[in-house]
Design goal:
The chain is α/β, with parallel strands linked by helices. It contains 9 helices and 8 strands. The chain has one domain: Rossmann fold (3-Layer(aba) Sandwich), CATH 3.40.50.
Length: 299
Amino acid sequence: MKNNWQNEIFRNENELGWLKYSLEKRETEYSPSSVIGGNYKPFIDEYKNKSHLARSKNKSEIYQYGKSSSHKIEITVSDTSPDNELKPLLIFIHGGYWQELSLEESFFSAIHTNKNKIGFAAINYTLAPKATIDQIVYECQSAIEWIFTHCNELGFDSKKIVISGSSAGAHLAAMYSLKRKPLYNHFGNILVSGIYDIQPLIKTSVDEALCLDPDEALRNSPLFYELKDFPPTIVAWGEIETDQFKKQSKIFANKLIEDKIPVRTLEVKNKNHFDVILDLADYDTPLGMELKMLLDFQD
């Protein structure tokens, strides 16, 4: 299996080059909807509708991992197998530039995880401007640690946890991998359409809710950390993305390869920043096949 993991870097991708951009250019490049006509609401509606469908087909429970009303995790109820075998667990952190979306729109992958004999957990966190990036990173770390602590009693194997995220959620998953404690080591990541250097967002409209200062942006940019302790990672993005979002993924993949982390990359044809994540756990799609390959890689 290891021979199928990428070891060829993207040779023409070594810097984002955003410092040369005007603020207007950064606005466009860091607006994922700019390449689909600007209206991403239909995709959010699809997240919501498919999440409701997933709940109708799968029993789930909502757990509190902290004191705030936003500190919630929704987890599928694991059916006890005849031999009491613990299932793998896919954790998902939603995107929305740290200021949009919630559990309501985050449960859609459970449509597929149950039939593939995988558990699913969606994490909710406090949104900006009520929380800073530092606080959001800490909340997601706390949520994942809560899952590890209760994993076995919920019917899931703590040694077979994969953490996934979309857009800002991929950033948060990557930040967890950097900050995780030895007791809470997960097996792998699936990072989809992520942003790994958040400095280009400073002074854009995205930053109105975030209020980033240069120090906070730098310490929350996974691209500038040593990544040698990362788990095996899938880095994926849609074909219909801005140049900067594609570069963010390719350069981060390069960094993982340089730090000798098992990594696979995938550009999903005919998918954009918003609909690419809908295939996350569907084994009949290229992205879903990557999840299966990641779980098989462990075995």
